[in-house]
Design a protein that fits this description.
The protein has 79 residues and is mainly beta. It has one domain. The chain contains 1 helix and 4 strands. The longest helix is centred in the first third of the chain and has 10 residues, at 8-17. The chain is globular. The N and C termini lie far apart (27 Å). The model has no long low-confidence stretch (mean pLDDT 96).
Length: 79
Amino acid sequence: MAARGISVADVLTVLQADDAIERYPQDTPFPSRLLLGTANGRPLHVVAAHDHVEDVTYIVTTYEPDPAEWSADFRRRRS
C-alpha cells in the first residue's frame, strides 16, 4: 500500500462504500470480493476477504486500476 501511495484511510473509505464489482466465493480460506471506490479523487480497487466466524476483514491487495485494463468507470475488465 505504501509503495502505491495508498493509505489505511483510503482503504477504509473504499471498504465503507462497499461497492463490490466482482465476487470470488470460492477463494480460500475466506470468500473475497473486489471493491471499487474513490479516495482523494482517485479510483481504487481493494480486494478484501471476510471471515464471518471471527467477523474480521482481511485486505488481500489494493491498487489504482489501470485504464488500459479496465472500462472507463473501472467496473469491468477490458477483453
